[in-house]
Amino acid sequence: MDIAEAKEVLAAYLVGQRVGAEALRRALALVNEDELLARSLAEELSGEGADDCQVFGQNLAEFSELSLTECVREMPQLWAHLGHCDECRRAYGEFKPVWRLAAQVKAISQSIGKELTASLCLTLNRAGRLIPSKEDLWAVYLPLSLGLEMGDAHPHQPESGEAPEAEETKRIEWKLRDDEAQCLIHLTVDGLPSGQAAMKCALIADPSSAIEVDLARLELRWAETSTLQLSGLLAQHGHRPIKLAPGSWVVKVQATGGGQSFTWEIPIRLHTAAT
Q1: C-alpha distance from residue 6 to each of 171, 225, 228, 237 (Å)
Q2: Which pLDDT belongs to residue 17?
Q3: Higher pLDDT pick, 265 / 69
Q4: Where are the domains of the chain?
């Protein structure tokens, strides 16, 4: 590798493009051999950086194919930008597939299993308020003053004279669409002062969908042991607040329609803030 190639490698890395670890190591070693050259190259590269949002858009397709670990390791600049740019987060959430195929078995009828491509992540503080996570791509944070659309859980109002920070006065919903089944799963979660969360779940089908919503089933399992916590018709359980303790959960929704059987698995991670 010569200095021109090293410059190309470092320039690509600095704007968030995917660079092999070995190529990056060799480029850094070459440049660091000459302090004057390193300073000159740093000054030159600092003037070549494109707009962060533009660079993210150019690399969106490749970035969306990576796992969270791969994003942090291979495109650290873009991952850091994603953490504070709402516009790019929205673009990322729209571009990245919501579901991946978990299992598909063809027999007399067709059974299609899908799982969310990323866990839903929630953090509760000691007051029972939800704190946004930049790992969660599809969450919508709603002011507590709006209440719950689907039920009777009570939003937590601040104590008299208290002015909580904006990021701690949100409740969260997800609308997870499946275009193949022509429906979406609508989850809403509210924090509770007990340190738990209250979840509600609904399956909403398009007018043209063959999904039989009334017969859909809901299942909730504790992920670490696969212990079944709840099972039954979604119509009976989904509209009632279901308490989630801190830890890892799997929500499963099952429905049939048009000669097919669909199963959607949604992993949820609930943490409590240290402070």
Answers
A1: 48, 49, 55, 59
A2: 63
A3: 265
A4: 3-95, 99-272
